[in-house]
Design goal:
This protein is α/β, with parallel strands linked by helices and about 300 residues long. It contains ten helices and seven strands. The protein has a domain at about 110-225 and about 235-275: Ribosomal Protein L15, Chain: K, domain 2, CATH 3.100.10.
Length: about 300
Amino acid sequence: MPPRLQLARAAKSLTSPQFPVATFLVPFLHQQRHASILGSLSDAPGAYNKRIRRGRGPSSGKGKTSGRGHKGQKQHGKVPAGFNGGQTTDEVTHGPRGFKNIFAPEIAPVNLDRIQEWIDKGRLDASKPITLKELARSRCIHGVKDGVKLLAKNAGELRTPINIIVSRASATAVAAVEKRGGSVISRYYTAQSIRQILKGDSHPFASLEAIGGPLESIIPMSTPAPAADSGNTTPSSARIPALPKFRYRLPDPAGRTDIEYYRDPAHRGYLVHTVKEGEGPSLFFKPPKEGEKRIKRVAEAKKKAVEANKLW
């Protein structure tokens, strides 16, 4: 847009006594020319939408083939996604991949509101420990494969204090159960051990490593008779569960990930009693004091070896 010419101010300065100008030039100096805005007028954004008209001559840019190109299958119609020239599609031959972890355990969920409903109907006995065996037999859960996880859907509906033993539990569910005066214990299970429990060939939660931990308050214990030559009773570590004999023993975790999970107090694991004072649930990170003691022991052993190898 051409700028506006401000000549009046220049005319006044030129007509002053300091700059004498001819009188016939004064009218031209007082003229002003305003720039026109007619060339920049346009519609408001979105007021006009020009539709692409196809097949209206070569000058339009979409003439003749109307933007479809020359020859080929795509000129005459659409091609489905994944079309492979008439052959069997890749989705059929290779199948969909990804978005599912085939190694993840299949955990059956159970919510607190459903447990309370089953207690109200008399299907579950809240005075006894609730295990996956009671949950499966009462049809509170269906199809247990790798374990059971306690969730906190409608946790406010839980009114009865319960002692429940499951594979895993969410932090919200643990807080809701303990708020009502109950307890949650997470216990390690395998798919095979679950099948044995449901058949009645294994105990739902008792095992060798469970003795001395949170489950000891639930498992009835029996102490063998003391020896005849000593008046001392058998120590607590030698106590055994007073349970009927089962065909199979319930296994304890052997992998590092599972051991660390059930050693963690935050998960209410049944192996928390195996964690020593000052240690954490991790098997990899040792407490600082133990590391310092080990360094001292190694240094002393090296020093003794050097002293023993001296000839004089």
